[in-house]
Amino acid sequence: MASKMKPQKTISELIDLLKSRNLTFEDSFSAEKLLSQINYYRLSGYWRKYQINPDKNDNNFVPETTFEKIIEIYELDTALRNLLQKGLGIFEICFRSKFAYHFAHSAENGQLLYLQQKSYDNSKISENEKPSELLEKIEKELERSKEKFILHLRKNSCLMLLVDEINQNNEYSDEILELCRQNSEFYKGLTEPTL
User: Fold this and answer.
1) In which domain, by residue range, is 145 found?
2) Residue at a domain's end among 53, 78, 103
3) How far apart are CA 16 and CA 24, in angstroms?
4) Is residue 106 situated within a structural domain?
5) Total number of domains constituting the chain
6) Distance between CA 132 and CA 115 in Å, rounded?
7) Tell me: the pLDDT tens digits for 9-18?
């Protein structure tokens, strides 16, 4: 038997409910605005520890708990999350750059090894990780991308020749690589990055 859903409440009704549970509001108008922007249930995770015993349905708040204090905690959590995301984004780019650099220099034409099926050890790949599907995703991403360096490579046709040849032969030829080097200003201007 399905459980009966609680009737929906307006923001004003939710504030009245919280007040009846001993939560103090310094500014109910601002609280209404915040609840319309953040959502009651999102904030409920932040005020749970200020309730007397929510596990046993005692949702009353401990004395002197204010809505504004809960908002301060929510905003601190948001700021920390944003800071961590920014830091992780920087770390990810740095890690990918270093990984790509070392992978590219691991063999002749190493910068293109990830596009070859034979670069993947099939004995270590699960049923859900098929290199052919990964290579298809890479191709779609290259076709979709609006990044300047991809557009530049596409304009010089080198990238699309590589993708087409890899799709047909599952490898690339020295002739295509040489064509890319000769016809692309991108390759002519490459310098080795310093790490």
Assistant:
1) 111-188
2) 78
3) 10
4) no
5) 2
6) 10
7) 999 999 999 9
